[in-house]
Amino acid sequence: MVEVTEGLSIARGIPLAEEQGIGPLTLGGFVREVSRRYGPSEAAVIHLGDKVERWTYDDLWARSMEVARALVACGVGKGTRVGVLATNRLEFLSGVFGTALAGGVAMTVSTFFTPAELETVLQMGGCSVLLLERRVLKKDFAQTLVDLEPQIGTAKPGEVASTKFPFLRHLAVIDSDEGLGAIEGWSTFLARGNDVDPALVDAAAASVQPSDPGVLFFSSGSTGKAKGILSAHRGVCLQLWRWPQWYDVKVPPRTWSANGFFWSGNFSMALGGTLGCGGSLVLQRWFDAEEALSLMEAEKASMMLAWPHQWAQLMAASNYDSVDLSAMHYIDALTPCAQHPTIDTDWREPAQAFGNTETFTLISVFASGTAEEIAGKSHGVPTAGSTIKIVDPMTGATMPLGERGEIAVKGPTLMLGYLGVPLDESLDGEGFLRTADGGYIDEQGRLFWEGRLNDIIKTGGANVSPIEIDEVIRAHPEVKMVQTVGVPDDLLGELVVSCVVAVEGARPDAGAIRDFAKEKLASYKVPRRVLFVAESDLKTTGSAKIKTADLRKLAAERLETEVSPG
Predict the structure, then answer these.
(1) Using CA of residue 115, residue 117, residue 120, residue 125, what is the dihedral sign?
(2) Residue 43 lies in a domain
């Protein structure tokens, strides 16, 4: 039963000790437990060209142990950071769980990162071992690393001594047995562990505590730079065990997803919602609509984890009308794809929820199947052990019950902290994280989220900082001023729109500015539209800050009247 403090906007979930269905609270313990429960059942499948590779839970355990032994041979110990730069493939799973079994901290790295972003993240994260997928679409990450640090191309494996990446010693490609300089091929790397006694890995895994650091994820923050968010094993594993319950899983799903597991939401929803209950992951390395539909049909996928902007692409695919998706059940009945003639479902996703990377996904939720008279239009009630309060954004004082303010949270899944930021600078005096999101709590302890208090843009399932975009575009020689805003969009949630004031006398081209931005920014951060405005359109506050709400309205009005793309 949710507890609400009388007269105040403070709601507490049930005590953590009363929560049901929770298993081991380390990642090593998680993979050991699901392998014990579901051993011979299929855990994951991937199609690579004409080759199909399937892992059972026993295989997942064996491959994870193989990686763990190699990592131990490389000197990985408790708390050592191991980077995993990869798409959704089998080796991502063994890389993350193998790191946990060896006692290390898995540092997931987005394959969307540009070379400049990758350099920043590797320097921030300080990983000692980097496991990387070499070829992702047009990218060659091995060559990118050599370009960033030429020594990687000339040093012998295990002998990297870079002043740019001072902790980095070992690198290996997970998608090839052919190495490059200091980067080992996969089979060579794994062979390092041949002489490591599995009992040593068992002892290392057993020494890891739920309170120890478990994973390091990166998220775009209000500063415009990537934020390294460190989470404990307990927080991650609580969420992995919870997702099958939030999904109200009756039959273990066969879950299709092409959304990167290097983001905490996709990681928790897919790995937790599937492996946590004995299902199978139908892996796709990157999103391709036609391939996704063929994959779902061939593998009889029963759960589809897609962001709204992908729905239209799936429905526009040439094989959409002919594909057989009759096995699909765990897809929200109100989404466009659920209207496919071969799909028959009344399932609803647990979308009435609130959370972020700092809470490793949800900290308030109503599970799938919750009656409307209970959930209403809210965003859930606090998860077990968690507390949510509403504070005055200016003073931090707790607001009276029902009044609007800033959402502040704490609980067992809250991060250990941001890299490089003292914890007391991240949390308030009572240990709450102030989220910069606005909302209110009602007398039933339900949270009502009303949007961002700051200007972070949520587009296509990703958080994008306008500060970062503006910093890049501002360097264009024909740009005098720029302010990027998020404009509501049915498909993406928000459209990234950059409003530019040109240098006097210049006539910059919108396409050229987008091309300029592409050189420095990941694809999902590049503005979809560039609008040219007068300097007078950028109205400012008394402290010289641009009134983004007014500009957002102007941009939305302009987009409504324009037909052709900029």
Answers:
(1) negative
(2) no
